Amino acid sequence: MTAVRTEHPTVDERRARGRQARRDTPLAALADLTESDRDPISLLELQAKSRVQDLVPIRYGRMSASRFSFFRGAALVMTDDLSRSPDSGLNSQLCGDAHLSNFGIYATPERKLAFDINDFDETYPGPFEWDVKRLAASLAIAAKDNGYSGKERKKIVRGCAAEYRETLIAQAGLGNLAVWYAHIAPEDGLEELRVDLKKRMLERTQATLDKARRRDSAQAAGKFTEIVDGRRRFISDPPLIVPAEELFAGTDLTQIEELLRQRVRSYRSTLQWDRRVLLESFEMTHIARKVVGVGSVGTRAWMILMKGVDDDDPLILQVKEAQPSVLSAYVDGPTFSNEGERVVNGQRLMQATSDIFLGWERGPGLDEDEHDFYIRQLRDGKGSAVIETMKPEGMELYGRLCARVLAYAHARSSDRIAIAEYLGDGTEFDFAIGEFAAAYAKRNARDHAALLTAIDDGRVSAERGV
């Protein structure tokens, strides 16, 4: 087999590429939101066809709760819109769903806390600004839902865009290894922002960090399991948590449990060698189906309870279905033999450091069709901000932090020098993204209203409050 030579253009050539991209698609063009006659409900219905049908009404119910809740579940709808608008032509590995609730705190393998993107179901290569636009639009929508003034919303969104631009430009001036290791430690971020944070906000942020440190498999076991006849088992809380013996009622579980053990062994082969050894020291003891998220509701998701030395030494793994990225139908990009591998590889590329048990697997579902999955710890120091209680200054700071780690992630996987040249030192990018976000907030409000109408008319069924 002939090796393909990797091209290594000079810095000047990379800058020239950025300048050409700016001539082809001026920064002002990024403000454009092309009109479209697409029906958001039809797109959501199309997406729902591959999901567990009895869970789809929960998804619609959660999306109907607010304009921001709708936005969280409508990554496909926004991708369809983005595909119709001008783009820079400068690609990066994208999160694909970079709204502000998909950033948060988690524990690194060294047991330190990091702040980063934490959802990669839609990760795929595409125009770098698509992620920025989704983040900026999420801020505009959440700020509107929180009742902020127009002036406050503009300041929040432009601050996010400016933070992204300035961070990306700074990363372009660094060496490859320095870019690769760039990350935000929450404690460091607190120190940096301490002057800007009011005392009450500082205390609330510190409480979030303290809570995240306590969130691990032992804490998850305390919440999701109970001791039955001397053995730890998942609780039953249908339809959100359904143990296997209830889901497969009337069926001999022996064969199912053996099949699941085989699939755990198959997943184990995707881990780093030392982590395979660690996983082998745990025994699978129980499994349950779990409903997760907003946009993810209806995808197949499971919890696996693993026992270490005894029932007081648990490990809980989350097994989540990976369907094709919503981006893959709209941009040219790679194909994958397993969508779980796509998610894992994208996460490892974009995150500064990832869960030690992150891996992938494939196997038949209840419908006997093959499905792709990725696996990780259910909880490992995870924590997130409560968007609904944020004050304007808090959301501005949070938006800046999200933008910074997004720039770190893009710098690792793109031609950061070309993108930095495209962005430039001025504020034109910030204003263009601000205009786009404001326009998209209005479109999202119409789409949310369309969902409410579809529910009222009986076009779709929604189960609210679940």
UniProtKB/TrEMBL annotation:
InterPro entries: DUF2252. Coiled coil: none annotated. Residues 1-29 are annotated as: Disordered. It comes from Rhodococcus erythropolis (strain PR4 / NBRC 100887). Pfam families: DUF2252 (PF10009). Residues 1-25 have a biased composition (Basic and acidic residues). This is DUF2252 domain-containing protein. It comes from the Bacteria.
